[in-house]
Amino acid sequence: MRRALPLAAAFLFAACSAPRRADVTAPAGPAAPVRLAAPEPAEVKDPNFILVVSETVPNPDDDGVSFTKVFVDGKEAGKTAVGRKSEERTLKLKLPPGNAPVRLEHWFLPAVGEWTRLDDSLQPRERFVRIEDGSIARLELRFSEDEASNALTLSRLPAGL
Amino acid sequence: MIKRIKSLTWACVVALAACGPAREVEPNDSYQQATPLKAGRTAVGTIANAKDADWYRLDIAAEGVLSAKIGGIRDVDFVISAFDKDRRELVRVDETTVGGDEQLLSLGVSPGVYYLVVWNKNPAANNPKQEYRLVTKLDPAAGRERQPNFTALTAQPVDAGGTVRGWYWPTRNLLVDDPQAQGVDHWFSVDVQRPGLFLLNVDVSEVRKVDPILEVYDTNGYKLVSVDQGGIGEGESLRSFGVRGPAKYLLRLRSKYDNVGNPDDPFDLMTELLPYQGRTEFEPNNQRADATPLELDSIQGTIAPAGDADWYKISIATDAKQLLRADLSGVTGMDLTLTLKDTLGNDLLVVDNMGKEQPEVLTGYGVTKGDYYLVVTEKSGKKADSRNGYTLTKKLIPWQAGLEWEPNDSTATVQGLKVGDSVDGYFAPKGDVDWYEFNVYQKGPIGLDLTGVINVAPKLTLFDQEYKELESASAAKPGDPVTLTRELDRGTYSVRLQPSDPAQNNVRDKYSFRVIAK
C-alpha cells in the first residue's frame, strides 16, 4: 500500500507529461507546414512611423486573417499583428531619420493551406517615406475587391500623438 | 297548277320572312318569354313603356364573339345587357343618353343559350310606336378578345405569338358596385409552359382618342412592369421583358383616362415569346439584383419605359488583371450615359462624353475577379423608345505593363511606374485625371515625355512624395506633346496628367507617357 500511492502518482504525472497519442503516431518525414501566426509586434515608444492596414470585406465569409510586413531600405523593420481582414491593424515603428524606400508585403491565411504571400502584382507599390523629427509619417494601406486592388496614402501627423 | 303556284308563293313568303328582321313577340319581359333571335340577325321591337324590357334568346351553336348594336330612338335611353343561360349578367352597356345608339362588342360566347336584354333608363320615355333595330353579329372567336375579361380572374388566355383584336369598349364596367372603380380593364393571360428563360414582346396598336396603359402581373398579383410611353392615339410596346417558365403572366390593358374608349377603332394586341439567348436585355433589369448577365460580346437593349435603367452584370472568374472596355451605340433622339459599378452597386466610373445620338465609350477600366455592372440610362430620364435599341459591346483585355490601369485618378490609386518605363492611356471619360508615380533611387535628371493627342491640350504636373507641386508644363494647343526635365533627388514622385480643359477628351487615341533618366 505504501508503495502503491507514489507509484500511482508517478503514473499520473507521466501520463500528463507524455505526448498525446496523436503526436506519438504522427508519420515520420518532412515536417508538416505550420499555420503559425505572426508574433504580436512589440509596443514602440515615441514612434515616427505608423502603418495602418485595413480591408473592405463585403462578405463575412471572406473575412479571413492577414498581416503585413514592412521593409525599409530592403530590410524587414516589423510586421503588423495578425487580425481579421475587416479589422484595422496598426504598426508603430521608430525608424532612423532620412528618406528611405518602404515596401509593404501583405500575407493572408487562405481557408485551406498555409500563410500565403499576396501575389507580387497585387502587392502595394514601393515608395519613399521621409522620416524626420517632429512628425510622424502615417502610411495607410487599404485593400479592396478581395485584395485585388489597394490604395496607399501618406500623411503626416505631429509627433507625440 | 294553281295549287303549286300558291304553295310556291307561300314558300317564298316564309323564306323572305326568315331572311328579314325578327320581330319581338310581346310579352318578352323575362327570360321565360324571351323572343328567339338567331345570332347574326336583326330584331325589331318597341319600348312599349318606360319600364319595358325586351328579352331575346340566342341559341349559340359554336364558339364565337357576339356583337349587338341598337339604333337610338326618340325619348328612349337604351341599355343593353347580356346574360348567360343561368341569367348571370355578363356585360351591361350604357354609354349614351336619350336617343343615343348603344353597342355591345366582343362578348365571348360558347355553345349554349344567351340572352340579350334591351331596356330603357329614361323614366319619362313615351315612344311606344317607334321601332328600334337590334343588329347582332357573330364572328369566329379566333384572334378576338372575348369579354367579359375585366378582371384578373377572368383573364382571357392568349397564345404568345398571335394577335388579339378588341375594343376599348364599353368604357365603364357597370356591373361593379363601386362607381369609382368602373374603369374597364382588358385582362389577358400568357401561359409560358416550357421551362427556361424567355423574352416577352407585347405590342398594342394605336387607337384614336385612347391613351393605353399596358401592365404585366405575375400570378400573385404583383405588378412587374407598366408601360405608358405613348400618348393619346398612340400605341404601346413592351420589348424584351424577361419571363421564366413554366409560369403564367397576366397582361392588363386599359385606357389611361376614365370614360374614354372607341367603339369604331379596334386595338390589336400582339404577343411574342422568344427563347432567351443572351443577345438582348432581360427586362426587368432595373436594379442590381435583376441585372442581365452580359456573357456574350454584345447585347441589345432599349430605354423603355421612360426613366429605364438597364443593368448588365459582368462576372470575371479569373484572378488575372484585365481591362474592361465597353462601347455603347447611340440611339435616335437620346443622350445615353454608361456607368460602371462595383459588386455592391457603387459607382466606379460614369461615362458621359458625348451628346445626343452619339456613342459612349468606356476606354478601359481595371478589373479583377468579381462582379461588375454596366448600367445604361438616358440622361434626361424622360425619354423612351422601345423600337430603337442600343447595342452594348464589352471587351476584356488582359492587362500588361505599359497599359494604363484605371482607376488612377487620385494619389491613393496612383499607378506605379519605373524610370525607363512608358505607359499608354486615354484622356477619357470627360474630366479624366491620370496619376502616375515613380521612385528615383539615384539623384539625377529625369525627363517626362507625353505625346500629343487630338482634341486634348494636356497639362503635366510633377509632385514630390509629400504631394507638393514641383513643376508643371502644358501643351500649347490640342494635339501638342508636353515634355519636362528636372534634376531629382532620391525619392518618390507623382505626375498628374490631365486635359487643360476638363471637357476635352479622346476615346479613340491613346497618349504615351514616358519617364526617362537623362
Order of helices and strands of chain A: HHEEEEEEEEEE
Give a short account of the largest sheet of chain A: 6 strands, antiparallel
Number of strands of chain A: 10
Please give the count of helices of chain B.
Answer: 1
As a percent range, the share of helical residues of chain A equals 10-25%
Q: Quaternary state, please? A: heterodimer
CATH class of the domain at 49-158 in chain A: Mainly Beta
Give the overall average pLDDT of chain A.
80
Describe this structure in words.
The relative contact order of chain A is 0.19. Chain A has a domain of 110 residues: Immunoglobulin-like (Sandwich). Helices cover 11% and strands 41% of the residues of chain A. With 161 residues, chain A is mainly beta. In chain A, strands 2, 3, 4, 6, 7 and 8 form a six-stranded antiparallel β-sheet that branches. Chain A is built from two helices and ten strands; from the N terminus they run H-H-E-E-E-E-E-E-E-E-E-E. The termini of chain A are far apart. The longest helix of chain A is centred in the N-terminal third of the chain and has 14 residues. The radius of gyration of chain A is 23 Å and the shape is globular. Chain B has 518 residues and is mainly beta. Chain B folds into four domains: 138 residues, Jelly Rolls (Sandwich); 120 residues, Jelly Rolls (Sandwich), CATH 2.60.120; 111 residues, Jelly Rolls (Sandwich); 103 residues, Jelly Rolls (Sandwich). In chain B, 3% of the residues lie in helices and 51% in strands. Chain B contains one helix and 35 strands. In chain B, strands 11, 12, 13, 14, 15, 16 and 17 form a seven-stranded mixed β-sheet that branches. The longest helix of chain B is centred in the first third of the chain and has 18 residues. Chain B is rod-shaped, with a radius of gyration of 36 Å. At the A-B interface, strand 8 and strand 10 of A face loops of B.
